[in-house]
Amino acid sequence: MHFGTAQNQYEEELQNTSDEQSKKEAKIQIGLTITLAVFIMISGVIFFHYYEGLTWLDSWYFVVITLTTVGYGDITPQTSLGKFITPIFVILGIGMITSLITGVNKYLIQRRINKFNAKHNTSNNRNKLT
């Protein structure tokens, strides 16, 4: 019986370590994605300001509208380079947003699993029954 308790404690520690590792990985993914998002957005604002001749405000507006795939169509690229870069920019932006949503979901799900495991600790319940 004592061995079973030690084994349950070991399994619980292993599960907690795994849960914490998953939460840490999700936080890292979210942090990296946010950093990438800021970099892509700043790069886009600079690019559209200098190569498309947009004001800083219009460049910001175009970047946000484009990356969120709203695309009102009121501002469009006019140069060949702008028309070439914009689809690449959109693909990167959609990938970035998808990655951010995935990271946040992974973190929230792992947090919920941890709360469930803490509330319904099966190894403790088994010990109480024996």
Please explain how this structure is put together.
By secondary structure, this protein is mostly helical. 85% of the residues lie in helices and 0% in strands. α1 (2-51) packs across α2 (56-67) and α1 packs antiparallel against α3 (80-119). It is rod-shaped, with a radius of gyration of 24 Å. The chain starts with a helix and ends with a helix. Mean pLDDT is 81; it is low at 124-130.
Could you give the topology of this structure?
Elements: H1 2-51, H2 56-67, H3 80-119, H4 122-129
Helix pairs in contact: 1-2, 1-3
Short description:
This protein has 130 residues and is an all-alpha fold.
Largest sheet: none
Overall 3D form: rod-shaped
CATH domain class of the domain at 45-112: Mainly Alpha
Task: Please provide the count of β strands.
Answer: 0
Segments where pLDDT lies below 50 for 5+ residues?
124-130
Key terms:
single chain, 130 residues, mainly alpha, Helix Hairpins, 4 helices
